[in-house]
Every structure is written in C-alpha cells, then in structure tokens.
Amino acid sequence: MLSDSTTLVSSDYTTESGSMIKVENLTKKFGDFVAVDDISFDVRKGEIFGLLGPNGAGKSTILRILSTLSSPTKGTAIIGGHDIVKNDTEVRKMIGIVSEKMIMYNRLTAKENLWFFGCLFGIPKDVLTKRIDELLELVQLTKWKDAQVGTFSTGMRQRVNVIRALLNMPQVLFLDEPTLGLDPQSSVEIREFIKKLNKENGTTIMITTHMMVDADLLCDRIAIVDHGKIVALDTSKNLKKLISGADTTVLKLEIANLVPKIIDSIRAIECVDAVSQEDDTHLRIIVHGDEAFDNVVDAVRAEDGKINAMENLQPTLEDVFLHITGHQVRDSADQKIPMGRHRRFEAPQGRAR
Predict the structure, then answer these.
(1) For residue 239, which of 322, 339, 350 has the smallest C-alpha distance?
(2) What domain count does the chain have?
(3) Which domain range does residue 143 map to?
(4) Are residues 196 and 248 in the same domain?
(5) Which of 45, 60, 104, 260 is the most exposed, fewest CB within 10 Å of its CB?
C-alpha cells in the first residue's frame, strides 16, 4: 500500500446516491450504427464493476465516453460529481485509463516511461520520484526499474502499463481488457494486483472484458452487454441463479457422430432454451422442465445419434450470456447464430435499463 503522502485515492467523494459513476440514457451513434444504445447504470464507490460481452458489443466505446475520449450522442454521465461533457477537465483529473493497447516506449526503461507520463500530468519532481518508486514496488518491478521495457515479458509490460495510469492518484480506474493476450501466469498476476489495488486503496475500478474468469473472480457486479445494450446487471452469483433454479439446468452431451441435423433437432425442442457447440463432439444445452433430459435424448436418438456421455453442469457466466442473448460471448457481436427457442430475460427492476 502506498504511503499517506502518495495515496491513490485523493478523496472519498460520492454522489448523493452513493455512486461514484452515474450513467443515464447514454447513447453513441456512428452514422446509422448504434454502438451504445440508451444504457443506464451506476458504479458505487470502491466497487469493481465489470462490462462483460463479446468483441464489438460496445464495451470499449462506453469506456471511451466515460474517460472523455469520445462524446456521447445523447444521455449523461457523472463521475465524482462532474459531468463528462460539461466538466471534462475535472473528470480527467480524477480518472486513470488502461487501454487495450499498451502505451509505452520500448527503448525507455520502466522508470523513464513512468517519469515521462508523470511529467505530462504536471506532477512535481520530488513527489513523482517517490511515487514511481512506490508504484514499481507495488507491482514488484523495482529490480527492473532501469531495464528497457522492450526487454520485458508481456506480463511485466502490462504491470508497468497499469501503474502508468495510477501516477495521477485516480479515484476511478478504467481497465479495457486488462488480461488480453497474456499467458495464464501473467493474467493471475494482473488480477491479483487489481484486487490488491481495490482492497488496500479503495480505488473504484471499471473493467471491460470478454474473459469469463476475469469477470467472475474480480467483479463485485457485472453488466452483460450485447449489441450496445445492458441486458442484465447483478452479481456473478445472482446472474448464475437465472439458470440454476429448479426449472432450468445446463446439460453437456458428447455425441460421437455429431452432425448439423442432430443440433437442429435439439434446438427445435420446446424445453430447450439455447444450444452451443463446443467442438466436434460436445454440445452445451440449456433446458427447462422435468422432461427436458428425456426429450433431448429422444431427439438425438431419432436422428441416429450416438451419445457417449451426458452430465449436468454448474452454470457459468458463458451460460448466462448464452441464455439471455442466444449466442456465446466468444462470438463476434454481429455474428448471427440460429438458436431456436430461448426465453426472454427481463432485467431486475431498477438494476439495468
């Protein structure tokens, strides 16, 4: 944790509603294309809030608007009591942003990179020197402070990229796909740092991701985004309850001779809400009703399918997304996948609009 003189949270401001970020009817259009479609939500002070969805769903556009890099077509957003359009300069003073693309200079050392960006913030030299040392210690890179960033592993580079956004002591930190392209060990390191930063310094953090594990392990609440809309918003546990009740379950089938007509036959069953194909032999099926198991087996056998294995699974966030939207998070947002019948989900009252 940083010393009191360089704490990452410079005040304990919240709005009257207890929110650090409040978004109302936010919309962004590019010509006729609607990237963000009339969304409303709030982020509480000290919360890790996730925007989960496929590439192209509108997550990064939302972050660009909230970080004042892009103007909304309509709607409002308030961060720390400041309107992102009317008071954009004040907003920039209290936020940090880690974009999907790392912003660093390979020929500069870790310390030189941080010094350069700290000078852009106008931080006094004595304060900046101490802050850089403490931030490098925070991510365990003090040993490599004088090494060129171009010699670092991807995980080390991302750690420098994250603390670069902390130089101005932001109250709010925006992270756009923070573990994208990282190996498993580096991803774990970044997740642990994010949790440490939030717990020890109280930084409010908003993360965009299409990685299930990041959303599940990090976020206090998750907004599921699809085609520019928030289609659900709650804790990971509560979202999973949407398909873990007595009436709904997740089945996994291994079918030796899996062919399209078998999949089509399963999708046509009334009790089947959604189907996804994992590989050449495995299907993941969300079903409801007491007769669902027997109906699925009958449909496979009617097409001469050979079932090698079948099991009930605990629902994942991927299943929730599939259940609500009819396609998988890993699919591109504009890819149309024929899904058959699936029940419409209504967001809980007052949580997401």
Answers:
(1) 322
(2) 2
(3) 4-234
(4) no
(5) 260
Among positive and negative, which fits the CA dihedral 100, 103, 109, 114?
negative
Give the contacts of 167 (CB within 8 A, at least 6 positions apart).
Answer: 96, 114, 117, 118, 121, 123, 128, 131, 132, 135
- Residue 341 placed within a domain: no
Same domain? 129 vs 187:
yes
Residue 234 β-bridge partners = 222
Residue found by looking up tokens 């009252």 in the block = 349
pLDDT in tens, the chain (353 residues): 444 333 333 334 444 457 999 999 999 999 999 999 999 999 999 999 999 988 889 999 999 999 999 999 999 999 999 999 999 999 999 999 998 788 889 999 999 999 999 999 899 999 999 999 999 998 889 999 999 999 998 889 988 998 999 999 999 999 998 888 788 888 888 898 899 889 988 999 999 988 888 999 999 999 999 999 999 999 999 998 888 765 788 999 999 999 999 999 999 999 999 899 999 999 999 998 888 989 999 999 999 999 999 998 888 888 888 888 877 765 543 343 333 333 333 333 343 43
**Cα–Cα distance between 323 and 343 in angstroms, integer?**
8
Of 211, 234, 257, the residue that ends a domain is 234
Q: How far apart are CA 169 and CA 182, in angstroms?
A: 26
Amino acid identity, residue 107? R
The residue type found at 139 is: V
Residue 10 is encoded by which pair of tokens? 């410079």
SS3 content of the chain, % helix, strand, coil (to 5): 35, 25, 40
Tell me, what CATH number does 13's domain have? 3.40.50.300
How far is 212 from 229, CA to CA, in rounded Å?
A: 19
- Nearest-angstrom CA–CA distance, 171 and 5: 15
pTM: 0.78
The beta strand positions in the chain, using DSSP E, are: 19-30, 33-44, 48-52, 74-79, 82-83, 95-98, 172-176, 204-209, 221-226, 229-234, 248-255, 272-277, 282-288, 307-313
Together in a domain, 91 and 225? yes
